Amino acid sequence: EFGQVKVTEAATFEGLLTVRKLASFESGVIILGSLTLSGDLEISGAVVSEFKAGEKLSKGNAVYLSAASTVKKANAGREASLPAVGVAVADAEENGKVKVAVAGTVGGFEKLQVGQRYYVGTLAGSLVNSAPSGEGESVQVVGLAKSETEMLIMPSLTYSVNKAVVSPTTVAASSATVPTPTPAPAVVNEKTAAVM
């Protein structure tokens, strides 16, 4: 039994480490190997992964995997740039490292519409609160506005592509013989047709 333990530089534990009450880490924790949790996992921020920026990125850009461990701006107007895997949490220069929120809450947005879904937009990297509707544009949900400044990131890895709307056209008469459709038999309601 120890009272309060404070480590100011580094500590290495071999074997099993059991923490029975609340543990607070003020900087960061690096775990090499497996982590087993039982019970709830409460996260107040985002689940973040580090990637290489395949182009210059800005905080808040929706990004997709363009190559191994490399992300670029997602674009609903270019199906090859989907699905978005998350949102950049900081600016990054091309070929630099960028952290991407793949789940959880990300702050720093402005004027979000609380409760609205946010989709990949047709401007590269953008997030919009109405689904793209143009022909060939893709619809993929990336997150939900938790407040005017925070978005709950939960990208759907599936998306749909809007198809062309086919309108009826008039066919010009030709000399070809076109069969006349046979009308369908009328349906008679037995109750109203009964003889009284």
Largest sheet: 5 strands, mixed, barrel
Which regions are unreliable across 5 or more consecutive residues at pLDDT < 50? 173-196
Tell me the overall shape. Answer: elongated
Strand pairing plus helix content: what structural class?
A: mainly beta
Sequence of strands across the biggest β-sheet: 1-3-2-4-5
Cα-atom radius of gyration: 28 Å
Q: First CA to last CA: what distance?
A: 96 Å
The beta-strand count equals 11
Q: Beta-strand level of the residues, as a percent range?
A: 25-35%
Separate helix tally: 1
Note the run of SSEs as H and E. Answer: EEEEEEEEEEEH
**Approximately how much helix is present in the residues?**
under 10%
Quaternary arrangement of the chains shown?
Answer: single chain
Q: Write down the overall mean pLDDT.
A: 83
Give a short synopsis of this structure.
The chain is mostly beta strands and 196 residues long. The chain contains one helix and eleven strands; from the N terminus they run E-E-E-E-E-E-E-E-E-E-E-H.
Name a few traits of the molecule.
196 residues; mainly beta; five-stranded mixed beta barrel; elongated
